Amino acid sequence: RNRLMFPIRDSAGRVVAFTGRALAADDVAKYLNSPETELYHKSEILFGMDFAKDAIRVRKFTMLVEGQIDVILAHQAGFQNAVALSGTALTEKHLSLMKRYSENLMLVLDADTAGLKATARSAELALRSGLRVKAARLPKGKDPAELIGEDPKDFAQRIAAAKPIVEFFLAELAEKESSSHRLLRSAENIVLPLIAAMPSPMER
Prior knowledge:
By secondary structure, the protein is an alpha/beta fold. The protein has helices at 49-59, 68-76, 92-99, 113-128, 144-150, 152-160, 165-176, 180-197; strands at residues 3-9, 15-22, 31-33, 62-65, 82-84, 104-107, 132-135, 163-164. A hairpin with a 5-residue loop joins strand 1 and strand 2. Helix 2 (68-76) packs parallel to helix 5 (144-150), helix 5 packs across helix 6 (152-160) and helix 7 packs antiparallel against helix 8 (180-197). The chain is globular and about 50 Å long. The mean pLDDT is 92.
């Protein structure tokens, strides 16, 4: 089918499924995943976790990126603590798997509107489950793989400059909204749910 195949392993390193990434630019489905089976539940598997778990313990945070190629390039650039979802939204089971290795999560998702929405959704769920969440800022229209391919040092600097999730969104929204009224509305819709999701009254 003219696709690049990625084996998907569970956290013990056993192959449980495959992803096929389209090699032709005009292919309708960019990614095709194996169907759910007794062995493969998308809501439980994080791509790359079998390689990343030791680095997560050492670095003391999990880096969540968007896709398989982002994971592979992040590992090549020295960020062996990177993992990705497999065509599904972040779930409680993903978060409990992450918590085995670290209580800190860094979101490095695409910088477009859909990516920011995914960042807010994932952050809220992660905060509710008691994780500390940061986000790194990517240039507009770039995913982690593109940025690492062009400039691994720039990527590393952006990871080092990652902000706690509330500060991240306040900065993002302040840059987007010139009107203070619209900024307040956006903060109410995006930032307040994040603050409400924090279990610790001190952090709130």
